[in-house]
From TrEMBL:
Family annotation (Gene3D superfamilies): Metalloproteases ('zincins'), catalytic domain
Organism: Kaistia hirudinis
Lineage: Bacteria, Pseudomonadati, Pseudomonadota, Alphaproteobacteria, Hyphomicrobiales
Domain (YgjP-like metallopeptidase) ranges: 23-212
Protein name as catalogued: YgjP-like metallopeptidase domain-containing protein
Stored Pfam families: YgjP-like
Transmembrane segments: none
Length: 224
């Protein structure tokens, strides 16, 4: 098994985590740490790592014929070749994501489509919740972090995981409400949660959905 080593002078201790969709274990070495100590740390936590890896859902490929979620609804990827945009079509048999272009570029084209859809939905929800709270978001960024769905900086930058577009719209709305609320409360105090509930009354069910199903979203396009 490949294990990544991350030297972090700001870290205060050794940590072990799994890196998102590639499912790669990452050991963080703090300032003053050594590779020998990192090996020992990894050995002591081998059981934990095996349990985490075994608990991960099976990877869902981004490939012709695969079924992935889009806004909480399953869509079947269909490679149609030729020229044109990636698009969703729905009929009595369900929804399909039609992907033009060469087969070798299918995964990239699907991923780019999901990112575009995510940005559109996230920007709209961010503007709506920011207006409700009377705050201004300076920048919206998309990424694919391994361990969080969003973050908010004191400078007004909010970052989201593009994978949230695969969740039901109510879950995306909760994520945005959570991060925008940090513009007023940079903590997770009772006051912060009251603020989130004010703009997202159904937050409890969406929060639970993400905790329960988040790993399956990271499994889309993952490498087993």
């Amino acid at each position: 098994m490949r294990i990544a080593i991350l030297w972090n002078p700001r870290a205060s201790r050794y940590t072990l985590r799994l890196r998102g969709s590639v499912r790669e274990p990452v050991v963080t070495i703090p300032q003053g740490g050594t590779l020998a100590e990192a090996r020992g740390f990894l050995t002591r936590h081998r059981g934990w790592l095996k349990a985490r890896l075994d608990a991960l859902p099976s990877a869902t490929p981004i490939a012709d014929g695969a079924v992935i979620p889009l806004r909480g609804t399953p869509v079947t990827i269909r490679h149609v070749g030729g020229r044109g945009l990636v698009r969703v079509e729905t009929d009595e048999n369900g929804s399909a994501l039609l992907v033009s272009g060469s087969a070798e570029h299918l995964k990239r084209r699907v991923t780019d489509f999901l990112k575009r859809e995510a940005r559109a939905d996230l920007e709209a929800a961010t503007l709506r919740h920011a207006a409700a709270l009377g705050v201004r978001v300076a920048t919206i960024r998309l990424g694919d972090p391994a361990s969080r769905w969003g973050s908010c900086s004191s400078s007004g930058t909010i970052a989201y995981s593009w994978r949230i577009i695969m969740a039901p719209p109510a879950v995306l709305d909760y994520l945005v409400a959570h991060e925008v609320a940090h513009m007023r409360e940079m903590n997770h105090s009772p006051r912060f949660w009251r603020l989130v509930r004010t703009i997202c009354p159904g937050m409890e069910s969406s929060k639970a959905w993400l905790a329960r199903n988040g790993a399956s979203l990271h499994a889309v396009g993952a490498e087993d």
